[in-house]
Amino acid sequence: MNLKVNGTGPEREEEPRDSRGIPMMLVNEVSWLMWETVRRQGAVHPVSQKSGQLILIELAKRDGRTQLELAEATHLKAPTVSVSLQKLEKEGYVSRRPDEYDLRATRVFLTEKGRELDERIRGIIREQEERATSCLTDEESETLTRILRKLKDNLIGANEEEKRF
Question: Is the entire prediction scored with pTM above 0.90?
Answer without folding.
Answer: no
